[in-house]
Specification:
255 residues; 2 domains; 10 strands; three-stranded antiparallel sheet; four-stranded antiparallel sheet; alpha+beta
């Protein structure tokens, strides 16, 4: 699962899966959906900070460092809350543009659903990663040859992921693309984030076919030279799983 701070929680495609009229409404009313996704996440950040402050004493003895949004894992419950809050904001904006009762009804519907999703999150709990590992940046990939064993000519997709000292892997990067011709390539993961102790490299001839290439985690500053034969390792993980789910039972939501 990604961390809360890895980027936008919901995509436009995921929002349209919940509301098939969304793209039409956004186009008609001049609403920037990407902006609304960000604004909804900003609102959730403030609420999560309050919720985490309320649970600080409950985490004593389990985790001694301050817990903040950087520790939050995007669980299914959190993802649903964000999606519904975003749709509430979209239809709230649409209503204020036109004072159209149909938009007001949709706004109220999604507001009620977002409150329900919040209550589910409070009961299930906020996912907390004790040693959060951020999503890796797109790696630096450059062709190496001809004095090395060459890969078959063609295009290759290359992704990396950071690992913490517990062996937990963060979200893999967006892939870089490199084309070889009687050559192979080198991969550098970039600046090592705090608490990361190593990284993995994934390679494939398509984004969905990328497989783990290294047998053991690579040290932070290591440059990976891709062998002439692709390893048939596992696919990238979905990111960190929470170490603990912390229910919030006494926190009152706004509004």
């Amino acid at each position: 699962m990604p961390l809360y701070t890895d980027g936008p929680i919901s995509s436009i495609e995921e929002l349209t899966a919940r509301d098939s009229q969304l793209l039409s409404v956004a186009s008609t009313e001049g609403i920037d959906l990407t902006q609304k996704i960000g604004l909804a996440q900003d609102e959730l950040t403030l609420e999560l900070c309050g919720m985490l402050t309320a649970t600080g004493s409950l985490l004593q003895g389990v985790w001694t460092s301050p817990v903040g949004v950087q520790n939050v894992v995007v669980t299914p419950a959190l993802k649903v809350w964000h999606a519904l809050r975003t749709l509430e904001l979209v239809y709230g904006d649409a209503y204020h543009n036109e004072l159209n009762d149909r938009y007001a009804g949709k706004r109220d519907q999604f507001r009620k659903m977002a409150r329900w999703a919040y209550e589910q999150l409070a009961q299930v709990g906020i996912g907390i990663a004790f040693i959060p590992v951020p999503k890796a940046a797109t790696p630096d990939v450059y062709v190496s040859g001809p004095d090395v064993d060459s890969l078959p000519d063609g295009a290759y997709y290359v992704s990396t992921a950071w690992i913490n000292g517990q062996g937990e892997e963060g979200c893999n990067s967006n892939p870089a693309v490199v084309t070889t011709a009687a050559s192979t390539f080198n991969v550098a993961a970039g600046a090592v984030p705090e608490r990361a102790t190593g990284w993995n490299v994934y390679v494939g001839t398509a984004p969905e076919s990328m497989m783990l290439q290294n047998g053991t985690p690579l040290a932070g500053e290591t440059v990976w030279l891709q062998p002439a034969t692709l390893a048939n390792g596992r696919q990238p993980s979905a990111g960190q799983s929470p170490n603990v789910l912390r229910p919030i039972r006494q926190f009152i939501q706004r509004g």
